[in-house]
Amino acid sequence: MKRYFCFIALFLFISAIPTFAQDEAQIKKELQEKYMAFLKEEGFSPTIDSDGDVKFKNEGNIFYLRPTTDKKYFEVLRILTDDNSDKFVSLLKSSNVTMKEFRLIRIIIYENSNEGFVVHFRSDNYLGEEEDFKKIFYRSLNVITSSIDFFKEDYLKK
Fold first, then answer.
1. DSSP 66
2. Which domain, by its residues, includes 82?
3. The CATH number of the domain where 38 resides is what?
4. How many domains in the chain?
5. Residue 55 to residues 25, 35, 59, 83, 116: CA-CA distances in angstroms?
6. Taking the model in full, what pTM does it have?
7. 126-143: pLDDT as tens digits
8. Is residue 14 scored above 90 in pLDDT?
């Protein structure tokens, strides 16, 4: 009887896995559509990139909205590159100084064999309501832009 129960429980668990994956994919698709509609209403020309991120330009700079499986999580991203491998420590130091100055920003640096160092500037927030991203969208863009300006100024000093 115990084996029978375990077999049924295992079967139910395994059959539920595709449902979870479908749910996650559906949530990301809904967020993509929501972000695309919002950006179009605001006068942007968004596209969806190969990773599924919503890509758009603001003042000549490329930004991304990254849909996740959490409808109450909102992330705006901008990516810079630096092909000077001798300046890695300077990148780290400038990142730390910038994150200390701008509390709403996360900076992630990683090495890419084609581009040297890739620097992600992220503004991510947990929302009270799903639609709250509209209220903080422009603030997120401003924080990223300001933090990049601050970062570049500090980096060039080193």
1. -
2. 2-157
3. 3.30.1460.10
4. 1
5. 18, 10, 14, 23, 22
6. 0.82
7. 999 999 999 999 999 999
8. no
